[in-house]
Amino acid sequence: MLTGLNAGTYPITATDANGCSVSTSVTLYQPNANHCCFTTSNPNAGSNIASQSNIILLPNTQVSSLTAANLLSNYGSGGVIQGKKFYIDGILTIDADLTLDACDIWFTPFSQIIVQGGNTLTLNNTNLSASCDWWVGIEVQQAQNKVSSTGGSINRAIVGIHASQDAIVELDGTTWNEIGQAGIIFATMNTTSYTGYVKNCQFNSTGLQPNSITTQHGILIRDAVHLNLGNTNAGNHFDGVRCGISINNAAPINSTIVLYDNTFENIHAPLYQTNLSTQEQEIVNHTYLEDQGTAIFANFNMTQNAMLQTNNLFVDHLGTPSQNMVQCDRGIVTIGSNTQITNQKLDNCLLGIMCHSPFKRKYYLQKIKLKMLTWELSYLATMTLVL
């Protein structure tokens, strides 16, 4: 065993008793100093991860600038990096199309991935995790940039994926674990025919993150003109987050949000989790302008300008109703939108469905099963109601 070697490439030759030999080389990398956590709630953090076998610390002497092009030139082929373990300290810029296939990557605090320059980041069965308490997550802006993920997981990020200005995300079968603010944020999505999708994904939170923080939102939508989440055979599942899907339009825009086959369980606000009578009082007195404790929350802006906008929320499930929402403080709360809810089953929720608007809106509810609810339906609006 050799110890005390500096960073560099070393030739190795092994010779047996018969004079047969084989030669190879080993490269030792010099990481930045900041590759450990001094204090952390993650037992696998810092030097414990960095000391794993076959892990590559970045940046290093070969990759001093954290870009996709540099990673590919050293560790990839044909735009693909396969089966690698990376420990990243810094901002990884996706300046070339990059596919990470069956990789495991850990990030130090304040580290993140930024997709730019008209490029695509593709994740195939790849796991992205924090080395310490949190990492920042993936940021992608504008329609020419894309993040695609199939399988794999995103763990302990402040925001898993932050997509804005019509950036494309194509997500299928990916799992989000112990996220801080939101698994996915869609912001300022102005296109009327958005082609991205989120299906067959899971958003999990057990409250075991740093400081016992529970994921605030599975998916958070801010000012989106058109989005489809889930589809008719592969919805998404939300478990233990404060709010499953939250829609908040600050600007008065025409907006259509379609939610297919999404399921929710254990969705609770941070207050009054064990005292049912207090929960009931909270339900009665709630202003319903907060999304916490709600499976699906949609606030389409109630300003005077919003009265002139056409806002639509569609919530559907293919076939007969199944248990879409179980053990939630509130099932569906809509504010200021035309609403169509079909084939939903709500079980053991404090409030089933609430529709509220100061303007005339249409509410279409069909094939809804409500079981063991404290309050089933509530309407506060000038409305056309179809049951």
Descriptive terms for the model:
Pectate Lyase C-like, disordered C terminus, 387 residues, six-stranded parallel sheet, mainly beta, 33 strands
Describe this structure in words.
- With 387 residues, this protein is mostly beta strands.
- The strands form three sheets. It has a 25-stranded parallel sheet that branches.
- It has three helices and 33 strands.
- 6% of the residues lie in helices and 50% in strands.
- It starts with 7 loop residues before the first strand and ends with a strand.
- The protein has a single domain, classed as Pectate Lyase C-like (3 Solenoid), CATH 2.160.20.
- The C terminus is likely disordered.
Whole-number count of domains: 1
Query: What class do helices, strands and sheet pairing give?
Result: mainly beta
Number of strands: 33
Oligomer type: single chain
Number of helices: 3
The best one-word shape is elongated
- Tell me about the biggest sheet? 25 strands, parallel
Segments where pLDDT lies below 50 for 5+ residues? Answer: 32-45, 379-387
Please state the average pLDDT score.
82
Please tell me the CATH architecture by its name.
Answer: 3 Solenoid
Radius of gyration: 24 Å
Sheet-strand content, in percent, reads over 45%
What gap, in angstroms, lies between the N and C termini?
A: 76 Å
- Helical proportion, percent range: under 10%
Helices and strands in order:
Elements: E1 8-15, E2 21-28, H1 47-50, E3 55-58, H2 68-75, E4 80-82, E5 85-88, E6 91-94, E7 98-101, E8 104-107, E9 112-115, E10 120-124, E11 127-130, E12 137-141, E13 146-150, E14 153-155, E15 159-164, E16 168-172, E17 175-177, E18 182-189, E19 197-199, E20 202-204, E21 217-224, E22 226-229, E23 237-239, E24 243-248, E25 255-260, E26 263-267, H3 276-285, E27 294-299, E28 311-316, E29 323-328, E30 330-335, E31 338-347, E32 351-371, E33 375-386
Parallel strand pairs: 3-5, 4-7, 5-8, 6-9, 7-10, 8-11, 9-12, 10-13, 11-14, 12-15, 13-16, 14-17, 15-18, 16-19, 17-20, 18-21, 20-23, 21-24, 22-25, 23-26, 24-27, 25-28, 26-29, 27-30, 28-31, 29-31, 30-32, 31-32, 32-33
Antiparallel strand pairs: 1-2
